[in-house]
Amino acid sequence: MAVSPLSSLSPSASDTAVKLTCAVNLQDNAHSPLITHSTGRELAEQLNDDVRHKYIKDKKLGEGTYAVVYLGHLRVDPSSLVAIKKIKVNAEYKDGLSMDAIREVKYLQELSHPNIIALHDVFSSKDQNLNLVLEYLPHGDLEMLIKDGNVHYGAADVKAWIGMLARGVWFCHENFILHRDIKPNNLLIAFDGEVKLADFGLARSFADPYLNMTHQVITRWYRPPELLYGARQYSGAVDIWSIGMVFAELLLRVPFVAGNSDLDQISKVCEAFGTPTEDNWPGVTRLPNYIPADKNHTVPIQGREFFLRQFPTAGPVGADLLMSMCMLDPRKRSTARQVLQHKWWFTEPKPTEKENLPRKSDGTQKMGNGLTRKGGEIDDYTFKYTARQLDFNAGE
Ligand code: AMP
């Protein structure tokens, strides 16, 4: 019997403390209690210097829209690797920091969970740039695995990855935080195979359900219909839709609904899952950007048979879970807790142990030491229940 993913939800109390010694915009913030007196400012600067000196920055690992990421290590222990994310100084935000950076620090310091990237420290460099010291995740991201034709994976692997993603999102939602940018590229892989939710630059708290929020979030292919229709009040259901899209993409190895504009995205969503109406989604016609459906072309809401036909590798129970994440009406979508309580986790195949999950690289090794299974190999059971979409090299 597979173990419910709920069983490993609790974070370890020992990693909860994040030392935040750098006040945002330290010099200009005259109202900060840290720096009202010159001695306070000196103390803050001293603390910041102490943190900065703990780390040595090495080679550049990658670059995102608002940051450059470097490999780094602890000065006292060169084998303790970290990722140092240096926030770019942007002309737009020259008097302070971008909201993305502020959000990333604010939410990551609140969240400590095995499936959420850990923020170890924050410091400002001599040039006044903010640096986030993050857990180093050396094995790329899920997008790399999906796209790499040399990486073969099966239903048990998909179950393990979706379980880890769902646990991370559950923890965010329990803490009233929406991620708002879940996609394969933001799911980084640790040395031991654990998948970690990263990039909290668009995250926000959703404690007040009546507060208006922007609908311009979540990368288009993973964006739920309520946001495409311009909803300003929404919930954790937006992240659940994104998990559903990641789930579908892992099974198909291509994005399931890939629009080339917001308008094209909503029309593809309706084509795939059904036409929203007041009957199947009460209130949809009152959403700000709702577009009335063409009366001559309405698609009925898709049921179980559709999901099973489209995603045979998920099996009937997996297809049922996927369907519950892809309900057009966000109120009907599963919550993260319901996802983790679904019977899929208790049906065969069991999720692959994280150490045995396929990994990127030259395709000759599995994660962990001393493992004999080669990259790309899948066991008989997995193979039997794996459709050809999962195997780019099947030649079919
Ligand atoms: P980001 O700005 O978060 O999108 O990061 C840009 C790139 O840096 C990513 O695509 C990764 O290649 C790399 N990267 C980011 N964070 C980490 C990390 N914690 N460990 C290893 N590489 C990372």
Automatic annotation (TrEMBL):
<feature type="active site" description="Proton acceptor">
    <location>
        <position position="181"/>
    </location>
</feature>
<keyword id="KW-0418">Kinase</keyword>
<dbReference type="GO" id="GO:0070985">
    <property type="term" value="C:transcription factor TFIIK complex"/>
</dbReference>
<feature type="binding site">
    <location>
        <position position="86"/>
    </location>
    <ligand>
        <name>ATP</name>
    </ligand>
</feature>
<keyword id="KW-0723">Serine/threonine-protein kinase</keyword>
<dbReference type="GO" id="GO:0005524">
    <property type="term" value="F:ATP binding"/>
</dbReference>
<feature type="domain" description="Protein kinase">
    <location>
        <begin position="55"/>
        <end position="345"/>
    </location>
</feature>
<feature type="compositionally biased region" description="Basic and acidic residues">
    <location>
        <begin position="351"/>
        <end position="363"/>
    </location>
</feature>
<dbReference type="InterPro" id="IPR008271">
    <property type="entry name" value="Ser/Thr_kinase_AS"/>
</dbReference>
<feature type="region of interest" description="Disordered">
    <location>
        <begin position="351"/>
        <end position="373"/>
    </location>
</feature>
<feature type="binding site">
    <location>
        <begin position="61"/>
        <end position="69"/>
    </location>
    <ligand>
        <name>ATP</name>
    </ligand>
</feature>
<comment type="similarity">
    <text>Belongs to the protein kinase superfamily. CMGC Ser/Thr protein kinase family. CDC2/CDKX subfamily.</text>
</comment>
<dbReference type="InterPro" id="IPR050108">
    <property type="entry name" value="CDK"/>
</dbReference>
<keyword id="KW-0597">Phosphoprotein</keyword>
<dbReference type="InterPro" id="IPR037770">
    <property type="entry name" value="CDK7"/>
</dbReference>
<dbReference type="InterPro" id="IPR017441">
    <property type="entry name" value="Protein_kinase_ATP_BS"/>
</dbReference>
<dbReference type="GO" id="GO:0005737">
    <property type="term" value="C:cytoplasm"/>
</dbReference>
<keyword id="KW-0808">Transferase</keyword>
<dbReference type="InterPro" id="IPR011009">
    <property type="entry name" value="Kinase-like_dom_sf"/>
</dbReference>
<dbReference type="InterPro" id="IPR000719">
    <property type="entry name" value="Prot_kinase_dom"/>
</dbReference>
<dbReference type="GO" id="GO:0004693">
    <property type="term" value="F:cyclin-dependent protein serine/threonine kinase activity"/>
</dbReference>
<keyword id="KW-0067">ATP-binding</keyword>
<keyword id="KW-0547">Nucleotide-binding</keyword>
<feature type="binding site">
    <location>
        <position position="85"/>
    </location>
    <ligand>
        <name>ATP</name>
    </ligand>
</feature>
<dbReference type="GO" id="GO:0032968">
    <property type="term" value="P:positive regulation of transcription elongation by RNA polymerase II"/>
</dbReference>
<protein>
    <submittedName>
        <fullName>Kinase-like domain-containing protein</fullName>
    </submittedName>
</protein>
<dbReference type="GO" id="GO:0008353">
    <property type="term" value="F:RNA polymerase II CTD heptapeptide repeat kinase activity"/>
</dbReference>
<dbReference type="Pfam" id="PF00069">
    <property type="entry name" value="Pkinase"/>
</dbReference>
